[in-house]
UniProtKB/TrEMBL annotation:
GO terms for molecular function: sugar transmembrane transporter activity. Mediates both low-affinity uptake and efflux of sugar across the plasma membrane. Keywords: Cell membrane, Membrane, Repeat, Sugar transport, Transmembrane, Transmembrane helix, Transport. This is Bidirectional sugar transporter SWEET. It comes from Miscanthus lutarioriparius.
Amino acid sequence: MVTSIRFIVGIIGSVVCVLLYAVPVLTFKRVVKEASVGEFSCVPYILALFSAFTWGWYGFPIVSDGWENLSLFGTCAVGVLFETSFVIVYIWFAPRDKKKFVVLMVSLVVAMLCVIVSLSSFILHTHHKRKVFVGSIGTVTSMSMYCGPLVAVKQVIRTKSVEFMPFYLSLFSLLTSFTWTLYGILGRDPYLTAPNGAGCLTGILQLVVYCIYSRCNNKPPKTVNDIELVNDLDIATSRQDTNGCKP
C-alpha cells in the first residue's frame, strides 16, 4: 500500500519538477531572440545540472536498491537534458570571457561527477554506503540551493516590492519540495526528506513575504513571463549549483 502511494506521489512530484525545470525556457528564448546572454548568469544552471546528475545517480540501481527511486531517476534525467541544453545555449551566445568561465565551471563539475561515480561504483561495495555517500553530497547541494530564495526574500523586504520574487515560481518550488518530502518520508529516506523539508520552509516563507508585500504594492501576481527577472538573483545561489527540480 505504502509502495503504491509512494509511486503515485513520485509521479506527481516528477510532473511538477519537470515544469519547474522548464521555467528557464522563457529566459533562453529571450537569449536566442537577442543573440546575447546580456547580464544573465549561467552559474545557477551549472549548479542545477550538478544537482540533477547527483540525484539521478542516487536514484540509479547502482546506488539505490533496484528501481526503488525510479521516479527520482526519471525526473533527474529530464533535468539533466534541460540544464545541459541551457548551458549549451548560454555558451553559444556568450562573449569569449564568459565562455571561458562557463567552460571552466562545467569542466570542474564533470570532474567532480566522475569522482562521485567512480568512488560509489568501485570503492563502496554496498547500497547503504553508496546511498550515504551520494545522498550526503546531494543533501548539501540541495540545502545550499534552497538558501538561494532567501536572497530574493531579503530583496523584497528591502525594496518592499515583489518584482524579483514571482508568485508562481515560489508556489511551484513549494509544491516540488512538499511532494519530494512526502516521497522521502514514505520511503524512509532521510537524504530526500531533509533537503526538501528545508525547501518547504523556504517556500512557505517566500509565499508569506509575497502576500505581505504584494498588498503594499497592490500589484497582481507575477506571471510566468516575469520569471526571467529573477535570473540575476540566481547567481547568489552559487548557491548551490542543484528536480530539478531539485528533489
